[in-house]
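Hi all, posting the design record for the shared folder.

TITLE: backbone redesign
STEP: 1 of 1
STRUCTURE INPUT:
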């Protein structure tokens, strides 16, 4: 099986990686079912990357249907250590305009029907999630994005993750604004939580496509609006991915974050109380601690 240290999860509008050479497609099965699609592995600027479209090619899966556990497990099993998510988002503030990019630093969970953890059936794990995005990978993405002189990039912001698939009401959108949220989408959770449980560095390039439905002078969000703005945004996201490939250290020991040891103090269950078959099932994630 080919391996890659960097994984890219493509969101709306990003279903394949441009400028990828030596491309191989791999179909992976996991204890949590099949991922959203086959994973493409190849080289971007000489660096190995794995690419997975979260909604599947053809955009077949709505946010609630995305097999997030299978997606993160599959990337981990390919040796991925860094996951870069590319996502379309609505803006909840005037100065984050459509076609701008945001590297968010916080998350607020408004999902209702998602599975939030890998661990169940006799293994209880409480990982720290105060900083949901990897600060080290976010900084590298920000530096790469800032090299695009024709694009406005915002450092930081709170991404509120709603259930969907319908967009928000005006009452919801205005409430999120009052609560201090900056951007809105439907997919960063549980992806970020599962990446943390898999001890992966995880960060997002959020592509602003609309002002949701709160803005008095702008039309409320529609799929047509999202798709039009995404065409430009996704090109810029691809440029960032090519650039960041050069900056990510091959050896994660050089990273200044704690993502690679996120479970070191998180396992609550007595080692002697964990059934053998559960240890076996989760060995990809916790073998080094058991
Ligand atoms: C097509 S607009 C709504 C859709 O776009 C975002 O997806 P992604 O984060 O995968 O780019 C949003 O979360 C919704 O799923
Ligand atoms: N306004 C919005 N709400 C939720 N998800 C989105 N994705 C893009 N725009 C969005």
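Okay, here is what came back for every position:
SEQUENCE:
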């Amino acid at each position: 099986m080919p391996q890659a240290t960097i994984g890219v999860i493509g969101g709306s509008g990003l279903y394949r990686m441009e400028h990828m050479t030596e491309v191989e497609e791999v179909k992976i099965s996991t204890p949590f079912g099949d991922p959203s699609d086959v994973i493409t592995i190849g080289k971007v600027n000489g660096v190995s990357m794995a690419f997975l479209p979260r909604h599947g090619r053809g955009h077949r899966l709505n946010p609630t249907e995305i097999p997030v556990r299978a997606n993160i497990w599959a990337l981990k099993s390919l040796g991925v250590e860094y996951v870069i998510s590319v996502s379309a988002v609505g803006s909840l503030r005037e100065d984050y305009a459509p076609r701008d990019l945001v590297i968010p630093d916080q998350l607020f969970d408004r999902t209702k029907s998602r599975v939030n953890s890998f661990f169940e059936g006799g293994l209880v794990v409480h990982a720290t999630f105060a900083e949901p995005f990897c600060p080290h990978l976010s900084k590298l993405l920000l530096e790469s994005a800032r090299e695009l002189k024709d694009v406005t990039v915002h450092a930081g912001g709170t991404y509120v993750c709603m259930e969907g698939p319908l967009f928000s009401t005006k009452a919801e959108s205005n409430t999120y604004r009052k609560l201090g949220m900056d951007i809105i989408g439907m997919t960063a959770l549980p992806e970020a939580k599962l990446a943390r449980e898999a001890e992966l560095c995880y960060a997002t390039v959020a592509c602003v496509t609309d002002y949701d439905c709160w803005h008095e002078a702008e039309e409320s969000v529609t799929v047509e609006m999202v798709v039009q703005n995404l065409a430009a945004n996704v090109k810029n996201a691809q440029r960032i991915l090519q650039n960041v490939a050069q900056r990510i250290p091959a050896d994660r020991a050089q990273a200044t974050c704690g993502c690679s040891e996120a479970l070191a103090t998180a396992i609550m269950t007595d080692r002697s109380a964990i059934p053998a078959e559960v240890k076996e099932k989760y060995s990809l994630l916790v073998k080094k601690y058991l």
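COMMENT: The mean pLDDT is 96.
Let me know if anyone wants the other runs.
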